[in-house]
Every structure is written in structure tokens, then in C-alpha cells.
């Protein structure tokens, strides 16, 4: 059964234009050498009405600058500290005392992200995640901060075994009992929420033949009917979020809330990065903000008013990987806007999305010809491959290679000595083969060509000597 027609959906938006129920924040990454001082950044946030920020560490200069600002802050305990936090309660006590209690409440820390996308971390830190979360929470209890500050961990959508249709969403089976069930139980017991990083851009980029650009950018479109639930989806973001809600429901955790800790769209990309353009980034982020601040949840969770953190505050010129990685920013380092979008309900009153008059091409905004069912297909029609980034560095490539050939279950037999793809005997060539094997094995799902930023998707067959890269299993 179709729950809501497009015309009725648009009517509701205008009838109840901007009930401030959702919340918008921004990720403040700093992998760059040209960013303004933390003090200037706080002024920038306040001048644009941004009242929530998420950072990827606990840098004292940043936390001091945020003191007294009224901006709510989510801090991060990095993946490399998970082992120590999981194994030693004393470490968790010290970390919380030094990095949280020392600044709270003047700096309004509201959450701690324990790790980030741990399941795709090539250093095999998954088993330490839930114990680390529990120890960090226990440290908050010691300081009587556990009621004010939540503990969670951002997951990538690659943690899902199934994501289409949304109603069939499920977590990867090997993660359910060791991680997801105990983590969701912890979130329930502590009144916390699941943190999710969701990027419709990745799904569109890899499946532009079957996903319409309008569906990815929250523009008017016929919608996509979920064959399981009967709900009609009018944007890919809601479909992705509901796949996670469905996965939680399958484990009987319908009561757990969600915060989208990362989402965004790049304003520039390489030639093969379909859809990366300033116009599309402005449309995605602007329409997303309207969608969130207008109130209302998703088809599966209609009362789930979401908090969403845009990625990212600045373009970061030292990030590895394809061009898009350095061009997710809302602002240039000189604090000028990359494109003009609203951030507050007041600004939304005068906001109108401006569709491009004609489709661009390649990395500057190719739309693709697909106007199919709009869903995230479990496999795609056009071939894509996953390759290693030459800019990632030896350590990151080796770690990714070890993960792919180990826990990731990639078929790495062809890159063993004397095998068909051993030559050229270079780290980048071997990592590319392993990354692609993992990517194809996982039917090119969202987030399976990442490896901590060491990999990216290409649309032409990789060429490493005479080695042929598989396109599917």
C-alpha cells in the first residue's frame, strides 16, 4: 500500500512549513594545513546559527574555544585508543577526566563517539568496541556525567548485510551476536542512540544507472515503493535510514533512537566520480536541511525527528584518496561559503532549490541516465572496480591489504608468489586486487570500497600488468 503520494507530501511541507523538530549539526574535521583558528571557527558556527558540532578528537584548543559558546559538542575517542579503553578501566577513567570532565559543563559536551566506523577499520578493532564503550560510560558514572553525556559509536552502512528494500534491512550476520546485540542493549540501558554515517552520494555514484539524481537530491520524483512494507520513498536518504531502523527492528530494538553523525555530498570530484559538483552538493545539503528542520521522521519511524551532522565544515586539503575527499566542505578555509544554502528555519523561508538547467558531465556533475526504480540495487548494471589510492601511504595500504585478505575474506590467492596476479609485485597493485576482491564479494555495497580512505571506485578496468580484476562473484 502506498502511504503518501508525492503531491500530498509536498502539500504537507507547505501546510506545516518549518516546525523546528529536527536538528542540524556539522562535522569539524581538521585534516588540512590552512584552516582558521578554533576561536574563528566558533565565531563562524555561531554566525550561521549552527548549534551542534562533532569533532574527531579532543583537541584542547578546540574544546577551550567552544567553552561558553552554547554550542553542543560530540567528541571522539579515536580507533587507535579502543584497545586501551577496552582493556583498562583505569585508562578510560583517565581519558574521561582529562578530555571530558576537565571541560564540562562550560564546553557543552553532549556525546562521546567511541571510535568511528570501526567495522571497516583495517586494524581489526571490532572486538574492543563494546567493552570500550562500557568502560567510557563507567568513567562518566564516576564523574556523575552519565546522565548528561551519551556514549555511542558511528557505524557505516557497510555494516548492513541487506539495505534494499529498506524493510529488509539487516546487519551483517557475523557482527550481530559479537557486536550489535550487546551494543544495542548497552544503548538501551544507558538511554543512548545509534550513530550512523549515511552517504547517498556513494550509492548514486556506484548505481547512477538505476538511481535517479532527483531521488538522491530530495527533488521531485515519482518515488520508489518498498515491496516489503508498501511505503513509497521520495528520497534515498530516508530509504537508507529506514534500512538501519529495519535492521534494529529485526533484533527487537525498535526503541533505540538514531543520530546521523555524517552525511554530505562533494562539490568536486574526479572524472569518474559521477554526480560530484557544487550544484549537486548545494541541492543535497540544502534540501536535506529543509527535510530535517521541517520535522517528521521516516516512513518506518514517522515520529523519529532526526539530528543530522553535515560533513563537513571545511574542505580539507590534506585528506587522501580521490578529489571528492578534499571537497565535502560547506566553507573554504578562508571562511567563504562553497555554495549558498540555509542553516536555520528562518533562512529556510526564502530557500528555493535551483536545479541545473542541463546535466553536466563527468566529475563536474554527471547525472547518469538511470531513472529506474531508484533503490540501492544489491548489484549494479554498469561495472565498477575498487582500487588502492597511491596517495594513501604504505602503512594505510598495508593495513587495508591485511584486513581484506584476513577478516574481510577477499580472495587473495592470485596475488601470492608465482600466482597469476603476483606481478607487478607492488603494494599498490596487490592492495588494489585485494580491495577489489572484497568490494566485488560484497556486491559493491555502499562503503565496501573505503578501507580508511585508502581506496576508491573506478569505472574503467584497472590495469596492473596482465592481471585481470574480477567484476563479480
TrEMBL record:
<feature type="compositionally biased region" description="Gly residues">
    <location>
        <begin position="362"/>
        <end position="375"/>
    </location>
</feature>
<dbReference type="GO" id="GO:0006952">
    <property type="term" value="P:defense response"/>
</dbReference>
<dbReference type="GO" id="GO:0009506">
    <property type="term" value="C:plasmodesma"/>
</dbReference>
<keyword id="KW-0611">Plant defense</keyword>
<keyword id="KW-0378">Hydrolase</keyword>
<dbReference type="GO" id="GO:0005886">
    <property type="term" value="C:plasma membrane"/>
</dbReference>
<dbReference type="Pfam" id="PF00332">
    <property type="entry name" value="Glyco_hydro_17"/>
</dbReference>
<dbReference type="InterPro" id="IPR017853">
    <property type="entry name" value="GH"/>
</dbReference>
<keyword id="KW-0336">GPI-anchor</keyword>
<feature type="signal peptide">
    <location>
        <begin position="1"/>
        <end position="21"/>
    </location>
</feature>
<dbReference type="GO" id="GO:0098552">
    <property type="term" value="C:side of membrane"/>
</dbReference>
<keyword id="KW-0472">Membrane</keyword>
<keyword id="KW-0326">Glycosidase</keyword>
<feature type="region of interest" description="Disordered">
    <location>
        <begin position="349"/>
        <end position="378"/>
    </location>
</feature>
<keyword id="KW-1015">Disulfide bond</keyword>
<comment type="similarity">
    <text>Belongs to the glycosyl hydrolase 17 family.</text>
</comment>
<dbReference type="GO" id="GO:0005975">
    <property type="term" value="P:carbohydrate metabolic process"/>
</dbReference>
<keyword id="KW-0325">Glycoprotein</keyword>
<keyword id="KW-1003">Cell membrane</keyword>
<dbReference type="InterPro" id="IPR000490">
    <property type="entry name" value="Glyco_hydro_17"/>
</dbReference>
<feature type="domain" description="X8">
    <location>
        <begin position="384"/>
        <end position="469"/>
    </location>
</feature>
<dbReference type="GO" id="GO:0042973">
    <property type="term" value="F:glucan endo-1,3-beta-D-glucosidase activity"/>
</dbReference>
<keyword id="KW-0449">Lipoprotein</keyword>
<dbReference type="InterPro" id="IPR044965">
    <property type="entry name" value="Glyco_hydro_17_plant"/>
</dbReference>
<dbReference type="Pfam" id="PF07983">
    <property type="entry name" value="X8"/>
</dbReference>
<keyword id="KW-0732">Signal</keyword>
<protein>
    <recommendedName>
        <fullName>glucan endo-1,3-beta-D-glucosidase</fullName>
        <ecNumber>3.2.1.39</ecNumber>
    </recommendedName>
</protein>
<dbReference type="InterPro" id="IPR012946">
    <property type="entry name" value="X8"/>
</dbReference>
Amino acid at each position: 500500500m502506498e502511504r503518501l503520494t508525492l503531491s500530498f507530501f509536498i502539500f504537507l511541507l507547505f501546510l506545516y512549513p518549518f516546525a523546528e523538530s529536527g536538528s542540524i549539526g556539522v562535522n569539524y574535521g581538521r585534516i588540512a594545513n590552512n584552516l582558521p583558528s578554533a576561536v574563528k571557527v566558533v565565531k563562524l558556527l555561531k554566525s550561521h546559527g549552527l548549534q551542534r558540532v562533532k569533532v574527531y578528537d579532543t583537541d584542547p584548543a578546540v574544546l577551550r574555544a567552544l567553552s561558553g559558546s552554547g554550542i553542543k559538542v560530540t567528541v571522539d575517542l579515536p580507533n587507535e585508543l579502543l584497545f586501551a579503553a577496552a582493556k583498562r578501566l583505569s585508562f578510560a577513567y583517565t581519558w574521561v577526566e582529562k578530555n571530558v570532565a576537565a571541560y564540562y559543563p562550560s564546553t557543552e559536551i553532549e556525546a562521546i563517539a567511541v571510535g568511528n566506523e570501526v567495522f571497516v577499520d583495517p586494524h581489526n578493532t571490532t572486538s574492543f568496541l563494546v567493552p570500550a564503550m562500557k568502560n567510557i560510560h563507567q568513567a562518566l558514572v564516576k564523574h556523575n556525567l552519565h546522565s548528561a553525556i551519551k556514549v555511542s559509536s558511528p557505524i557505516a552502512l557497510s555494516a548492513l548485510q541487506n539495505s534494499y528494500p529498506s524493510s529488509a534491512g539487516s546487519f551483517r550476520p557475523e557482527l550481530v551476536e559479537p557486536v550489535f546485540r550487546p551494543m544495542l542493549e548497552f544503548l538501551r540501558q544507558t538511554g543512548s542512540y545509534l550513530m550512523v554515517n549515511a552517504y547517498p552520494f556513494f550509492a548514486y555514484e556506484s548505481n547512477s544507472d538505476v538511481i535517479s539524481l532527483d531521488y538522491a537530491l530530495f527533488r521531485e520524483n515519482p518515488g520508489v515503493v518498498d515491496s516489503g512494507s508498501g511505503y513509497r520513498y521520495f528520497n534515498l536518504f530516508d530509504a537508507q535510514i529506514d534500512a538501519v531502523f529495519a535492521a534494529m527492528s529485526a533484533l527487537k530494538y525498535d526503541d533505540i533512537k538514531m543520530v546521523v553523525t555524517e552525511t554530505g555530498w562533494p562539490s568536486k570530484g574526479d572524472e569518474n566520480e559521477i554526480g560530484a559538483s557544487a550544484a549537486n552538493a548545494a541541492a543535497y545539503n540544502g534540501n536535506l536541511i529543509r527535510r530535517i528542520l521541517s520535522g517528521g521522521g521516516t516512513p518506518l519511524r514517522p515520529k523519529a525527528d532526526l539530528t543530522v551532522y553535515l560533513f563537513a565544515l571545511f574542505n580539507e586539503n590534506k585528506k587522501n584518496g580521490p578529489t571528492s575527499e578534499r571537497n565535502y566542505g560547506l566553507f573554504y578555509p578562508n571562511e567563504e561559503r562553497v555554495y549558498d544554502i540555509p542553516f536555520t528555519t528562518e533562512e529556510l523561508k526564502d530557500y528555493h532549490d535551483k536545479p541545473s538547467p542541463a546535466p553536466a558531465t563527468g566529475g563536474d556533475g554527471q547525472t547518469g541516465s538511470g531513472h529506474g526504480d531508484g533503490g540501492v540495487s544489491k548489484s549494479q548494471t554498469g561495472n565498477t572496480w575498487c582500487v588502492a589510492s597511491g596517495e594513501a601511504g604504505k602503512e594505510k595500504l598495508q593495513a587495508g591489504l591485511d584486513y581484506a585478505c584476513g577478516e574481510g575474506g577477499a580472495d587473495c590467492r592470485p596475488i601470492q608468489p608465482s600466482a597469476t596476479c603476483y606481478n607487478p609485485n607492488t603494494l599498490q597493485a596487490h592492495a588494489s586486487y585485494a580491495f577489489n576482491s572484497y568490494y566485488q564479494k560484497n556486491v559493491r555495497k555502499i562503503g565496501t570500497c573505503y578501507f580508511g580512505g585508502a581506496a576508491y571506485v573506478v569505472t574503467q578496468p584497472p590495469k596492473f600488468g596482465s592481471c585481470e580484476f574480477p567484476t563479480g562473484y
